[in-house]
């Protein structure tokens, strides 16, 4: 059984580019933390930005939720067809 499923084309390329540009220009990015307030680059070496708390990211966050749900539905259909091939 495969444990990783890649769903291509879920997020439009234009939206991806908009997210990247907005992220790169956002001054509130910070070093990735674990446990809420600990920086440990041996565990997590990232640049983080909490977009769900920022009003200027609401439209993108809402769009990403829709695309995420679309991907979940696609994965579910694939799983069901493999698990119950007679459907």
What does this structure look like?
The protein has 87 residues and is mostly helical. The chain has one domain. 45% of the residues lie in helices and 5% in strands. It is built from 2 helices and 2 strands, in the order H-E-E-H. The protein has a two-stranded antiparallel sheet with strand order 1-2. The mean pLDDT is 84.
* Proportion of residues in extended strands: under 5%
Q: What's the gyration radius in Å? A: 17 Å
How far apart are the first and last residues' alpha carbons, in Å?
Answer: 19 Å
The total beta strand count reads 2
Could you say how many structural domains there are in total? 1
Q: Class by helix and strand content?
A: mainly alpha
Mean pLDDT across all residues, rounded?
84
Label the overall shape: extended
Largest sheet: 2 strands, antiparallel
- How many helices does DSSP assign? 2
Which spans have pLDDT < 50 for at least 5 consecutive residues? none
The strands making up the biggest β-sheet line up spatially as: 1-2
* Helix and strand pattern: HEEH
Helix and strand arrangement:
Blueprint: H1 13-25, E1 30-31, E2 47-48, H2 58-83
